[in-house]
Write a structure and sequence with these properties.
Strand content: 5-15%
Largest sheet: 5 strands, antiparallel
Number of strands: 10
Structural class: alpha+beta
Order of helices and strands: HHHHHHHHHEEEEHEEHEEHEHE
Distance between the termini: 108 Å
Helix content: 40-55%
C-alpha cells in the first residue's frame, strides 16, 4: 500500500477533503476532457496550492504584520517577517498533501508526487529551523549592539560564543536535513543502515577523509567555550596589529591596521602561541622613547611631559612615568609610559606626546636636543701641523689619508724647512677630528 493510500485510510480529514474535492475534479475533467486525466489532477493540485499561498500571504501581510505594540508587537512583526517564507511554503505543502488523495492520481505518479512533497517539506523544515536559529541569535546579540564592544569584554565574549555556536548549529541542521532528504530514497536508506551496521573500513575511510573539516569544526566549538580569541580582539600576528573581524567554523578573518585581511585556519589558535592584547582588558600602556643630550634638564623635561600627558584626552589617568632608561656615548634615552583605553588610543597618545615634546624642546629647551661634540688638538706657534700617516710604506707624497696624532713621514720631514710647514700641504679632512 502506498503512502497516499495509507493516509487516505487512516486520516478522516483527508477522506472528508476528498469528498468535497471530488465534484471539482469531476467538473475540471469534464471541462478539460481533451487533456489527460493525470494532467487535470495535477492542475487541481496546483490550484489548491495557489489558494493556500494566497491565504497564507493574506494572514501574514494583512494581519500579523499590522499588529500594534512597541515590544510584543515588534517581536511578532519581526518574527513574521523572518519566517513568512518558510511558513507559506509549509502551508502550501500541507494543503497539497491533504488534497493529494482527492485529486485522482494513481499508481507511480501518485507516489512520485508524494515523494516530491515529502522532500520539499523536509527542506523547508530545515530552512525554517536555520532561520529560527538566526533570528534568536540576532535578538540575543541586539542587547549588546549599543555597547562599545572595543571596551566591553563581556559583550565580545557573548558575541563570539553565539556566532560560533550558531554556525555549528547551522552546519548540524544542514547535515541532518540532507541526511533526511537522502533517507527518503529506499536504496540510500538500505545503504546507510548497512554502513552503520558494519562500522568497518568504510566508516574509517569516511572519517579520515573528513578529518580536516571535523578538526576545524571541533576547534571552533572549543574556541567558543574556552575563548582564547574573541570578536574584536587585538592580536599581534606576524609582527602586525590585527583585529579579529570574523570567526567562522573553519577559519578566522584578521584585519590589519591598513585594512588588509588575513585568513587563518581556526585550528592555528589552538596549536600556536600568540599574543592577545585584549584578553582581559582593552587597556594598554604605551611607551615613547626620547633621545636627549646629557645636559637636558630632567626636572623640566619630566614636568613638561606630565603636563602634555594630562592634557591628552586619550590618557586614562592610571599610569605615567618618565625615566632615564639607557644611555650611550652621546645621548641618554628617556622612556615615557602612559596608559590608554585601547590600542588605537594608545597609538594616538604616543604620537601626540612625541609631537608636543619635540616642539617644546626646539622652542624652549634647545639644550636638550642631541649634539655631537668634537675635540681639536692645539698647535703652538712655529709648530708644524701633524701629518696623517700613509696606508703603506711605499706611499708617495700627496697620498691620503693622514691624521693629527701620528708623526710626519720621512719625506715630509726632509722636504720641510725647520720652523715652517710645507706650503703645498692640503688641510686635514673632517675625519681627522675625533669625537669626545
Amino acid at each position: 500500500m502506498s503512502i497516499s493510500e495509507t493516509a487516505l485510510t487512516h486520516d478522516p480529514f483527508a477522506r472528508t477533503l476528498q469528498n468535497h474535492l471530488t465534484p471539482t475534479v469531476t467538473f475540471f475533467r469534464s471541462w478539460l476532457s481533451w487533456l489527460p486525466a493525470s494532467l487535470v489532477s495535477l492542475l487541481v493540485l496546483f490550484l489548491v496550492g495557489l489558494v493556500a499561498a494566497i491565504l497564507s500571504r493574506l494572514v501574514t501581510d494583512r494581519i500579523l504584520m499590522r499588529i500594534p505594540g512597541a515590544r510584543r508587537g515588534a517581536f511578532v512583526r519581526s518574527l513574521t517577517k523572518s519566517l513568512r517564507r518558510p511558513v507559506r511554503l509549509t502551508v502550501v505543502i500541507m494543503a497539497m498533501g491533504l488534497a493529494l488523495p482527492a485529486c485522482g492520481l494513481h499508481g507511480d505518479l501518485l507516489d512520485s508526487v508524494t515523494h516530491l512533497l515529502l522532500m520539499t517539506f523536509v527542506a523547508v523544515m530545515g530552512y525554517g529551523t536555520i532561520v529560527t536559529v538566526r533570528l534568536i541569535s540576532d535578538a540575543y546579540l541586539s542587547r549588546f549592539s549599543e555597547t562599545d564592544q572595543d571596551d566591553d569584554i563581556l559583550a565580545r565574549k557573548h558575541a563570539t560564543q553565539v556566532r560560533l555556536l550558531r554556525r555549528a548549529a547551522e552546519i548540524l541542521i544542514g547535515t541532518l536535513t540532507v541526511s533526511a532528504e537522502l533517507m527518503t530514497f529506499e536504496p540510500v536508506r538500505e545503504y546507510g543502515l548497512s554502513l552503520f551496521a558494519s562500522a568497518g573500513a568504510a566508516s574509517l575511510i569516511v572519517g579520515l577523509a573528513a578529518r580536516p573539516i571535523l578538526a576545524n569544526l571541533f576547534a571552533g566549538v572549543q574556541i567558543a567555550m574556552t575563548q582564547p580569541i574573541r570578536m574584536g580582539d587585538l592580536i599581534a600576528f606576524q609582527g602586525d596589529w590585527t583585529w579579529v573581524e570574523e570567526i567562522t567554523s573553519t577559519y578566522v578573518v584578521l584585519r590589519s591596521w591598513d585594512w588588509r585581511r588575513r585568513i587563518v585556519p581556526i585550528a592555528y589558535f589552538l596549536d600556536t602561541p600568540f599574543e592577545n592584547w585584549t584578553y582581559n582588558s582593552a587597556e594598554l600602556i604605551g611607551a615613547v622613547y626620547l633621545y636627549v643630550d646629557y645636559r637636558a634638564p630632567m626636572d623640566r623635561l619630566r614636568s613638561k611631559l606630565e603636563d602634555i600627558v594630562r592634557a591628552c584626552p586619550q590618557w586614562t589617568g592610571k599610569d605615567f612615568s618618565a625615566q632615564v632608561a639607557d644611555c650611550n656615548d652621546q645621548t641618554m634615552m628617556i622612556r615615557v609610559t602612559a596608559s590608554a583605553r585601547t590600542a588605537i588610543r594608545s597609538w594616538d597618545l604616543r604620537c601626540e606626546i612625541r609631537e608636543k615634546i619635540i616642539q617644546w624642546m626646539c622652542e624652549d629647551c634647545p639644550e636638550a636636543l642631541p649634539r655631537n661634540r668634537f675635540a681639536l688638538a692645539p698647535v703652538g706657534n712655529g709648530e708644524q701641523q701633524p701629518a696623517i700617516p700613509f696606508t703603506s710604506a711605499t706611499s708617495t707624497p700627496g697620498s691620503l689619508p693622514y691624521g693629527p696624532f701620528s708623526a710626519p713621514p720621512a719625506w715630509a720631514s726632509a722636504a720641510a724647512p725647520a720652523g715652517r710647514a710645507m706650503p703645498d700641504m692640503p688641510p686635514p679632512p673632517p675625519s681627522a677630528f675625533r669625537p669626545l
